[in-house]
Amino acid sequence: MKVLAILDNFDLQQTLIDSLTSAGVDTQSIIPCTYKDAGLFIKDTSFGLVLVDVMQNNVNSSLQFIDIIKTNNPLSKIIPIIHEKDSDLILQLIKRGIADVAITPLVQEELVQIVKKCSVDTLLSAPVNTPFSGAKGKIIAVTSYKGGTGVSTIASNLGFGLAELDATGKKVVVLDLANQSNHCAMLLDAQPTLNINQICKAVNKMESAYIFSSTSFISPNLGIIGTDPGLEGVEQLDPAILGKALDLLTESFEYVIVDLPTHTFDGRFLGTIDKADQILLITTIDITSIRDTRLYLTMLKSLGADQSKIRLLVNRYDCESGMFKTKDLEQALQNPISFYIPNDFKVCSESSQAGESIFEYKPNSMLAEALAEVAVGINGGTLFIPPKATTNKKAAAIPGLSSILSGLKK
To answer: Does residue 132 fall inside a structural domain?
Structure first.
């Protein structure tokens, strides 16, 4: 991989070269130069990595220089080298689509990770990301009142399905609002470089193009934005400010899939539900989940949520058990059910451990087929019937079902 290092500081230049060679870069592939001489190289598109020392005494000139490099080398990875954690400077870099920075003193381990992500073959073969340019995109809120129903799994795989399935092929971003763990990122083996807290703090200054260029992309069509993993991530988000951030995302993405937290009606929830075009409400077939889902539906109605936007999804549905018939579930929830996802713990857990979507890990599984139906359905398809059982087992009597049904009729 060819590396261009633009620095006026000789000591820093030597440290950088030593660190890059220790990281496995061939010394002959490293071209160090000063700002004065950089014009000889910046139009050379063969550089996979360009490191730029941001001059402390002339930050604006350094930023303008980075703009020139981005124009001439749109596929090169640009890493600014900064000398202190300046939040205003970092914001300016984010606006320019810069996802990573190196801070002096340089840490070899960090440079190793940068080099690993900058394979020339990968960079030159990857298409340039361009934002969705049609009408305003749609926001899909994925939620559940009860924890452990698989909200993050559904959200991450729905995002992948909408972005990558031939039947849809949309520009999609998964927005992980569930918690600081960023479970969607973990399930898709991704590392968000931009989080919602950063966007909300500068929402009146940012433009959608800046957000798009700063988003981490898992594939050409699928991006991911997380939540700040530190203490800022637990701060309450103002619903109105979050709403503005979501509006910006819909200018660049055809679908914004929001993974919402459970057991909460905070700013994240209120801001998303207010803007959502569809609310994908997840339940499972256990009694507590059915009860909580019915309660959740009542609360959504009380909050003024448009009932026509709500689509119920039954996750981990075991069609062999005969535990519930469709009419029983719909009667218990007093709502039609749009989607059924079969219970396949093995495939689901193994794909999570592999850091792959279920579509990638087991594309021919019933689980992948059902999730594909959800993606197609969300993209304008019709309701789906549950999978048929292959046995003639009779419906089992479930303790508590009759009491839930009778209680809901009152």
So the answer is: no
